[in-house]
Design goal:
With 495 residues, this protein is mainly β. The protein is built from 1 helix and 35 strands. The protein has 2 domains: 381 residues, TolB, C-terminal domain (Neuraminidase), CATH 2.120.10; 82 residues, Sandwich (Immunoglobulin-like), CATH 2.60.40.2550.
């Protein structure tokens, strides 16, 4: 399949983006920043005299987090380390998983619909190629099963809408060959299919998410030049259907005037059916910047933003926020140290605020997640050299300047979390003004099975828990109605 190098979409923007442009022009009249930089509510460090590097974070049903990465018990022989926290960052339990291979690496942690967890990453046996792994553990962190994939470096994955699991990364066998790779298992870890993308270049996969059409979107990079060093690489976006069939790809160039290096580290589907991507773009002069890319549902580029700080920077994680903007976490490397760097933008990528975290230590952010109350969890690692510790920060919801409560610019219904779920899930939504609200759940026959809200609510962010203990497994739909606004989203109950 030929690579489509699409850098700029022509024609008019979708209605949602046009509205965002209008809102950003209003913000410009009010002042350069809609929101003040959020306060830090608390910070937590996890670790000790060993080297612990946090690579991934997932939110849990109880409002806490699960952190995953590596811990070095012996030199050059890392093990996987999982830390489960409460909503206040206190440790509930920790688990270490070793002896999977010579060196074990965790890049995926996600709570599953039954309250357990899926861990993804890689294992490197002595003298052999890396194997991708999916490790299933129960709610207490005890191992249920392990699935492995020969020759794969696993970077991203999670539970899928059918109760199975997906892992994406790069296929690295034989030596010198690198292809984007994606694999799917059933609920018990049995492989259903694997796919590679080989376009005659080196294709890397770093982040995957399942899309509303039950397919998958993967982002990474593609390098077609044969020169030394980083060479000329572009951000690479690849779309697959539910059965893993390769549908299309896009290569997005951050610097069209010369050789550069661009990559995508994180991709999420957005509420308009498109995609938001963060990563980095490095131009020929060596300027490394955090990069934000908005793509349409067919992969065409709508806009890009280079986000520059006082030094080199990169984005590791991105999420669409309740107010329709985006939050990015990564790092900012100044002349003095390296900081966790969190940046909040509006719906068209204009920066509203940025915040550095980590003090005088060397600190990197791997993940950011917005909670239902508008606050943020930021995870990564920090090091008073020579050792790294896991590092978790909670930021308050931003407060607009001159206003005491967060401003909601539009009605928004957020995808439930977790999804799939069993037996409960959380639904968040936002109201720009006091309104009459009806929030209902329906089965696939259109029969109402629950009324979650029916009455007048204040403006702001709202959250409700849907309990489904008495309902059978299957697909359900929840619908929010307020004024002339109606939105419906799908949720999946798995027993």
């Amino acid at each position: 399949m030929e690579i489509d190098r699409s850098y700029q979409k022509t024609g008019s923007l979708p209605r949602r983006i046009q509205l965002a442009v209008l809102l950003s022009s209003v913000v410009a009249v009010l002042g350069p920043n809609l929101s003040a930089q959020p306060d830090t509510l608390w910070t937590r460090r996890y670790g000790g005299d060993l080297n612990e590097v946090c690579v991934t974070m997932g939110k849990t049903n109880d409002g806490g987090c699960v952190l995953g990465g590596i811990i070095n018990i012996t030199e050059n022989n890392p093990d996987i380390w999982l830390v489960k926290t409460t909503a206040n960052g206190d440790v509930e339990w920790t688990r270490m998983y070793g002896s999977l291979g010579y060196g074990d690496f965790c890049s995926v942690t996600q709570q599953t619909s039954d309250g357990g967890y899926i861990i993804g990453g890689s294992s490197s046996p002595p003298g052999g190629a890396s194997d991708g792994i999916l490790l299933r553990v129960d709610a207490d962190g005890d191992t249920t099963w392990l699935a492995s994939f020969f020759g794969v470096v696993g970077w991203s994955g999670g539970q899928t809408s059918d109760g199975g699991f997906v892992l994406a990364g790069s296929y690295t066998f034989p030596a010198g060959v690198i292809d984007l790779w994606i694999g799917k298992t059933d609920a018990n870890g049995a492989t259903l299919w694997t796919r590679t993308v080989d376009l005659g270049c080196n294709e890397y996969g770093y982040s995957v998410c399942q899309t509303d059409d039950a397919g998958y979107i993967v982002v990474g990079s593609i390098k077609c030049s044969s020169g030394g060093g980083l060479g000329d690489a572009d951000l690479f976006l690849a779309k697959f259907d539910f059965n893993g069939n390769f549908l299309w790809s896009r290569a997005i160039d951050g610097w069209s005037l010369g050789e550069d290096y661009d990559e995508g580290s994180s991709v999420r589907e957005t509420s308009d059916g498109g995609y938001i991507i963060t990563g980095r773009t490095l131009d020929y002069a060596g300027n490394d910047d955090m990069w934000l890319v908005k793509a349409a549902a067919n992969g065409d580029t709508l806009w890009t933003q280079r986000i520059r700080g006082m030094g080199s920077s990169a984005g590791s994680s991105v999420q669409e926020t309740i107010d329709g903007g985006f939050v990015i976490a990564g790092y900012l490397n100044t002349t003095h140290d390296v900081d966790m760097w969190v940046v909040k933008t509006d719906a068209v990528g204009s920066t509203l605020w940025e915040k550095s975290l980590g003090g005088n230590d060397q600190s990197y952010a791997c993940c950011v997640e917005q909670a239902g109350d508008g606050s943020y969890f930021v995870a990564g690692h920090t090091s008073p050299l020579p050792y790294n510790d896991y590092y978790l920060v909670r930021l308050a919801a931003e407060t607009p300047q001159g206003v005491e409560a967060p401003i909601v610019l539009r009605v928004d219904l957020v995808q439930n979390y977790p999804n799939p779920f069993n037996p409960s899930t959380t639904i968040d939504y936002a109201l720009p003004r006091s309104s009459y609200v009806k929030l209902e759940v329906f089965n696939v026959l259109g029969e109402r099975v629950s009324v979650l809200k029916d009455g007048i609510l204040d403006a702001g962010y709202h959250s409700v828990v849907f309990e489904a203990q008495r309902l059978p497994s299957g697909i359900y739909f929840y619908r929010l109605q307020t004024g002339d606004f109606t939105d419906t989203k799908k949720l999946l109950l798995l027993r």
